[in-house]
Design goal:
This protein is an all-beta fold. The protein is built from no helices and 9 strands. Strands 2-9-8-5 form a 4-stranded mixed β-sheet, with no helix packed on it. It has a 3-stranded antiparallel β-sheet with strand order 3-7-6, with no helix packed on it. It has a two-stranded antiparallel sheet with strand order 1-4. It starts with 12 loop residues before the first strand and ends in a 17-residue tail after the last strand. It is elongated and about 65 Å long.
Length: 110
């Protein structure tokens, strides 16, 4: 019987700094990804997208901003030549100052 060898090159893998995050509305969180096991010359450009930009937005640098309470999934993808993706679930909570109380509305006097 043949035994598997350890000499095969490692499969490229995309690892995120967080699998999930919990942030208050209006707060940002830096999501970053690292590709391990990639060949030299592979494009390591990552793209970020939010499943629900009404809950959380993400820019091209991976900065997530909480928009409204709820849950959104941020998907991180490598370029097509690697074809890797990973997800981070983001729970956006009520504004940190209000907690579970009713939000207090402050009207700006003009």
């Amino acid at each position: 019987s043949s035994t598997p060898t350890d000499s095969a090159p490692a499969e490229p893998e995309l690892k995120l700094n967080a699998d999930s995050a919990s942030i208050p509305v209006g707060v940002t969180f830096q999501l970053s990804g690292e590709v391990t096991g990639a060949e030299p010359g592979d494009s390591l450009v990552l793209s970020f997208r939010s499943s629900d930009s009404a809950i959380a937005t993400v820019n091209e640098d991976g900065v997530i901003t909480g928009v409204a309470p709820g849950t959104a999934v941020i998907t991180v993808e490598t370029s097509e030549d690697l074809g890797l993706s990973a997800e981070c679930e983001v729970l956006v909570k009520e504004d940190a100052q209000t907690g579970d109380e009713q939000p207090v509305l402050t009207l700006n006097s003009t």
